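[[Local backbone shapes]]
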Amino acid sequence: MKFSNFLFPAAMSPDQDHQIINETLREGQLCDELGMDMLWLAEHHFDGICAYVDPVSFAAALAACTKKIHIGFAVAQMSLHHPIRMAEQMSLIDNISKGRLVVGLGRGTAYNIYDYQGYGIDPAEAYERLVEAEDIMIKAWTTENYQHKGKFWDIRLPLLRPRPYTKPHPPIVRACSGEEAMLGMAREGRPFLMNIQSNEVTKQRMDLYRQTMREAGHNEATVAHSVDHTWIWRNIFVADTDAEAQRLALPAFETQQEFRQAMRKKVYEEQGLLLKQDAGPAARNQVQHSMICGSPATVAEEIAKIDKIGIGGLLMVFRMGPMPYEQAENSIRLFMKKVAPEFKKSGKTLAAA
């Protein structure tokens, strides 16, 4: 099983933006130095829940200041990006990083209506934009004299430059928040990113994912490859003892949840608009499903339960809400020194597609 840090830092006020952005760069460099497999980047706008906002620019910065760690998006909101511009940017970062980029794509946020409003995009168009954009990007990377006329874009270009470092193009992975989207990836024999779910639901989905690939006619090599490059999300915090981990992590997690809902509530009160209610029994809101928290032994025991399910990698958020950088750094160091060695295997490759 591979391990990654999902860099998802909140700046609780605009005055913190500079500090949090630079601390997050340090966090990425630390993970590179400690031998972690991958960094994942988010994209959210206008509310501070992701301080660096733009994963494309931040990926370029990380590519320039790290050496070995892979860098991916979890995910870029493709409804907010022009596909040719995105293809150029991805090709550039692929060259800067010498092939360490994984292009994680999604339709756009399911919760923040103001992300779409700020870009003048109808959220009802988000999925269709994603599908058309992904097709454009792949063909732009691999085709000369490319022409496209679709629902959202009318494009003609002689040759996209720079050419990708990775041939034929950087690996692509999709985020799938629901079961139906996951089944679509299974039918195509492609890996995916799973949002926070209980271990029970995670196992159900992974079993169904494998079954669906086989029923679609994919051979065992394709099934194994796709599973090996599928990642699932959990929040992680490691301290010397269970009590210390809970004392530091649980209040930060609770504050994070409140902060992520605050702007949605404000917009709803002012405009009466809401994409989706982020409350109730969703696993992402329940600490028992969304967080693995404790001593190195406790965290290793909980991760072993996930490892038995059979996944490619664990996509982990170490720094939550208002948590000071030093606490997250200590958690990462403990994880890499005392937890990761229990699971690491050699010979892994990170190509996602």
Observations:
- Residues 346-353 have pLDDT under 50 and may be disordered.
